[in-house]
Amino acid sequence: MSIFSLFYEATNGIINLGTSFNPHQLPNTSNISKMKDDDDRFLDLMQLSLINHNHIDIDTDLEPELDTHSDNHCYEVVDKANITFGKTNCGGRELHMCGYSYQVKKENVKTTRWRCVVRSPACPVTIHTSNVDDSVIHWNGVYHHHAPNGNRELIKRIIARIKSRVLTEPYPVVLIAEEEIRYAKLTKAELAGMPLPSQMESALKKYRRKHIPALPSSLDFKIPLLYQSTWSGEKFIVADTQRKKVGGRLIMFGSNEQVDLLLNSTTWFCDGTFKTRPLIFDQVYIIQCLVGDEVFPAIYVLTSNRQRKTYEEMINIILQLAANRRVVLPVQTIVSDYEEAWLLAVEKMLPNVCRLGCWFHFSQACYRNIQNLGLAKLYEDDPNIRLELKKFIALALLPRDQVKKF
């Protein structure tokens, strides 16, 4: 027989060892059977992967264990008036009562048998509830071998919010976890039971990889719904063209607000990037627009090549967007690099627009010519030669009528 120095009883408070008592008696639960369910004493051991150095598995159930050698208090098991239900990580039902949590072990037409979630070592406590009103109708009379964790349900709700955001937001998982913990405004006691963001990082990254669609390996793919709209539910795909006309596939992204800014701007800034492109595409082309004194990205384009016909199709789609909105395109100036295919496409599709070269790209082109002419060492070592060569770069800043043609 187990020896208790103290044990809790709802009606009598704390009872000394000398007081006679029935260890299977359940205070304030007269309708509960006082039978022992020996079949539940030996349950399948399901090893929980808890905190292991700096890692925690978010898909497991965390429950602090009680050292029965140093703490032999007996905690209340049943409180019929305070029962709540939740969800497990796999979507199953979970019951919470008196700081303990239970998962479904067996269910029939009339009743459901629940067992404690702590499985390592297996906690033998089981209870039965009615399927009619979810009331507790039976407890097997065994006490938990671990302390209650009243914060467990709260922690699970926070982790559920973290996991939800991990699937819908591109931010680092640690940042999302830190924000949700901060928003929860936990007490010191609640924070003590909450896993650290760094401990959840590995499991959250694995969770994200498992649920987010894999990167496509060819241009023949369907865009997942997750990437077809903004966080506010607004349409984000401007165009998706896959035909010979563009030599592969052309996808344009932008919100309605971004498109409106572009269609009402007089100055565009255009450039492509190759280092950050998806591997199955040739580049990411970005069209930005000037609004007041600020420049905003308006359209993101994934292209399969850098050919003139592809750029013409891009501009044609923008013209169609303007026509659909009954907007006369006010763009007067387009600033870009010196890519010939793009400049020819702009000249054909927007003949009245002034084309300006980007100062940054112009400076790069000048220095490349300095290198090609074998003047790089003189440019670096001789300040007089460096000054003269820089004057060529400065010519681009002068008005046209002040630059003589040679």
Automatic annotation (TrEMBL):
It holds the Pfam family MULE. InterPro entries: MULE_transposase_dom. It comes from Rotaria magnacalcarata. The lineage of its organism: Eukaryota, Metazoa, Spiralia, Gnathifera, Rotifera. This is MULE transposase domain-containing protein. It comes from the Eukaryota. Residues 268-364 form the MULE transposase domain.
